[in-house]
């Protein structure tokens, strides 16, 4: 253990005069030193070697080994020990010499107790300050080592991540990228930092998103849109960005991760192709069965066989719903494979909505519901778009509103424009949808199953078709719903596409 860190400092008196040794010991013990004594230099050196002596009171004039020699040996081997030489008037010069030889202080002999106290206390204070300074230095070094280790640990983790990671500052300049990012974008490991994001990534829309996030545009967003794109070499990536926030919630930049989703995309395409092929193969035999059922049903009408009529009608309803489902599946796979041809025409959305609403009026009346179309006073901008896609979008949304709203319910379609965006919302006061299903309803074949929906037939393909079409028109669809109160689906369509 280090003597200097203990409360009791160890002190050695080396003097051949017993009265001096004993007198000094009394005073110093009272000052709470651990006092050791030696009557000659050789014994003194031995004690310094064995104990953890911090201060030595050393008489310069002793028989045997001379005090100067003892001092020299102590300083050679135990540099930290403070030596206070005790010297008579006659040896003042020697005292000065001793100071040059490394003695800490000197005290003339004979000395008053106070003189001794002052000199020894000063030595003790020097030791205390020295210990404290050393402690601080060690702590500082440890903190720096810890920090360094923490930093290199985080760096190692980021470098080992299988996903690409890139960090930008608030100007959208790249300040960190990991090897996976470099691999995904075909960059060499020596690629320099500090360039704008578009130096490394050519996907324009993504760069715009990264810059927007870096500049703080998405600070209050819970769900920042992900961005899927192809790198051109048949590889698909999904980017997900997040702002990096400082202590005062200010935006410091963005962190963006990149995941290779090529395998998922390929699988998805194979699945869609399979579904499309099977649907296509099923469509013609089913249509034939449907038509033949029609012929047999007509015959049954003539023969007035109630039972046959009932059975055949049911069978025809089933084949009809299968044909509709196949139609939906084929639509969906066309939308997903982006092979659906857009037939672009100038369209006044108000007219299109009126005709969809009129077309569905029969179903609305059958359920005693009211369906109103609320248009803004100013005319909407003309859209150049595919009318079939729009009819399918709003046809599906309004049909759902009718289906999932009780008899006598209310449905309202509203169209308005804000700058270069047209908003159409379909609002009902029907069954509503539990928040936990709101994401799932846009997935293929997903249907909410509960007491209200039990007897409503459907395929779970309507909303995926709607979403696919809205996406292909460059728009977005959102939904808000409260169970028991109703739902509002809102479609945003850009005017200039
Ligand atoms: P389908 O209507 O054929 O079941 P969709 O994809 O159109 O398929 O809708 C998926 C599910 O979303 C529906 O089964 C229904 O549970 C729910 N849903 C859709 N629209 C509404 C609505 N307006 N009100 C309540 N639930 C709805």
Describe the structure.
A hairpin with a 5-residue loop joins β8 and β9. The protein has a five-stranded parallel sheet with strand order 2-1-3-4-5, sandwiched between helices. The chain has a five-stranded antiparallel sheet with strand order 7-6-10-9-8, sandwiched between helices. The chain has 497 residues and is α/β, with parallel strands linked by helices. It folds into four domains: 10-135, Response regulator (Rossmann fold, 3-Layer(aba) Sandwich); 161-260, PAS domain (Beta-Lactamase, 2-Layer Sandwich), CATH 3.30.450; 265-337, Helix Hairpins (Orthogonal Bundle); 345-494, Heat Shock Protein 90, CATH 3.30.565.10. It has twelve helices and 17 strands. The chain binds adenosine-5'-diphosphate. Adenosine-5'-diphosphate binds at residues 396, 400-401, 404, 428, 430-433, 441, 446-448, 453, 458-463, 487.
Q: Give the helix tally.
A: 12
Name of the CATH homologous superfamily of the largest domain: Histidine kinase-like ATPase, C-terminal domain
Small-molecule binders here are: adenosine-5'-diphosphate
The helix/strand series, from N terminus to C terminus, equals: EHEHEHEHEHEEHHEEEHHEHEEHEEHEE
N- to C-terminal distance: 79 Å
Strand order of the largest sheet: 2-1-3-4-5
User: Average pLDDT, to the nearest integer?
Assistant: 90
Q: What is the makeup of the main sheet? A: 5 strands, parallel
Summed up, what is this model?
The chain has 497 residues and is an alpha/beta fold. Helix content is 46%, strand content 21%.
């Amino acid at each position: 253990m280090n003597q200097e860190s203990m409360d009791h400092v160890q002190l050695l008196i080396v003097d051949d005069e017993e009265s001096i040794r004993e007198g000094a010991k009394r005073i110093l013990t009272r000052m709470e030193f651990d006092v050791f004594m030696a009557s000659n230099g050789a014994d003194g050196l031995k004690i310094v070697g064995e104990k953890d002596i911090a201060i030595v009171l050393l008489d310069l004039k002793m028989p045997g080994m001379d005090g100067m020699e003892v001092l020299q040996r102590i300083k050679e081997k135990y540099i930290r020990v403070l030596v206070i030489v005790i010297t008579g008037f006659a040896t003042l010069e020697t005292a000065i010499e001793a100071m040059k030889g490394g003695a800490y202080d000197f005290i003339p002999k004979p000395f008053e107790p106070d003189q001794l106290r002052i000199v020894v206390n000063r030595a003790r204070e020097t030791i205390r300050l020295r210990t404290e300074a050393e402690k601080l230095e060690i702590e500082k070094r440890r903190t720096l080592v810890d920090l360094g280790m923490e930093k290199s640990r985080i760096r190692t983790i980021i470098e080992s991540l299988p996903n690409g990671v890139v960090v930008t500052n608030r100007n959208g300049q790249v300040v960190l990228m990991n090897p996976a990012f470099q691999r995904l974008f075909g960059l060499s490991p020596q690629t320099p930092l500090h360039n704008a994001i578009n130096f490394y990534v050519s996907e324009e829309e993504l760069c715009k998103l990264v810059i927007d996030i870096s500049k703080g545009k998405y600070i209050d967003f819970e769900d920042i849109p992900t961005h899927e794109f192809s790198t051109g070499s048949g590889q698909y990536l999904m980017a997900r960005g997040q702002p990096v926030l400082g202590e005062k919630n200010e935006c410091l930049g963005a962190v963006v991760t990149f995941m290779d989703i090529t395998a998922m995309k390929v699988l998805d395409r194979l699945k869609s192709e399979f579904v499309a092929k099977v649907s296509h193969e099923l469509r013609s035999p089913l249509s034939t069965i449907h038509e033949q059922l029609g012929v047999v049903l007509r015959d049954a009408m003539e023969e007035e066989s109630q039972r046959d009529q009932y059975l055949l009608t049911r069978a025809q309803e089933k084949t009809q719903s299968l044909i509709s489902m196949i139609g939906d599946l084929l639509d969906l796979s066309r939308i997903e494979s982006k092979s659906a041809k857009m037939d672009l025409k100038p369209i006044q959305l108000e007219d299109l909505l009126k005709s969809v609403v009129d077309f569905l009026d029969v179903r609305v009346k059958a359920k005693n519901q009211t369906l109103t179309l609320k248009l803004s006073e100013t005319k909407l901008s003309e859209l150049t778009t595919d009318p079939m896609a729009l009819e399918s979008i709003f046809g599906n949304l309004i049909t759902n509103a009718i289906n999932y709203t009780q008899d006598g319910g209310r449905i309202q379609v509203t169209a308005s424009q804000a700058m270069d965006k047209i908003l159409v919302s379909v609002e009902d006061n029907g069954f509503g949808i539990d928040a936990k299903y709101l994401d799932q309803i846009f997935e293929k074949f997903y249907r909410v199953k509960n007491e209200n929906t039990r007897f409503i037939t459907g395929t779970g393909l309507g909303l995926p078709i709607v979403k696919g079409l809205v996406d292909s028109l460059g728009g977005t669809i959102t939904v808000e719903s409260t169970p028991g109160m109703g739902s509002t689906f809102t479609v945003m369509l850009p005017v200039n596409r």
